[in-house]
Amino acid sequence: MSNFVLVHGAWYGGWCWAQVAQRLRDAGHEVFTPTLSGLGEQAGPGAEMIDLRTHAVDVTNVLLEHDLEDVVLVGHSYGGLVVREVADSLSGRIKELILVDAWAGGDGESLDSLAPAFFKAWVDSATSEGLIAVPPASSVGVVDPEQAAWIEERLRPQPRLTFSQPTRLNGAVEDIPCRAIVCTPGGPMPFAELAKAFGWPTTEIASGHDVMTLAPDELAEMLLKP
Description:
The protein has 226 residues and is an alpha/beta fold.
């Protein structure tokens, strides 16, 4: 049995992992799906002050409060930056890192520094009072109107500082087994290229970026593979 900790991406919350988490629990594993500060049910006044470090502390606290060992730490999209920082500081507790269509950088890099210029320009244009407006569900591959409506009513503005604050790493994370799952045919974001640059084993999944809701069965199966 493993302890899975599933970390969502920008604008989302722990709710997005519900279907995947149930499949992992049915397979006999413990599963934790924290919602990062300022998002989901944690949204509220002062969210504009939340940064990447806050989110790393959120996930760190889950591991420490539950005294988790043998952790499979999974990060989707922006959550890739979060889980790498957490794993770097708690490397002895992490059995494996899995990055799902995720951002990943080295010490001192941020989502801003890793992202294509067009995306950063959109982020800047969509930012008001320190928060990045919610994008449409269609931008992550969700085209079914009912499913899109369900997702969009749960999305919350993303604190801008989470994209601009540089990752802080000491290097321990690079010694932890890591693999990547990338969605195909893929979009304009360099998730596959980032995984290749780090030399991680990579598996492709035929899905839009919102793979947790678009292909939960297939994703859960990939997460369970040794």
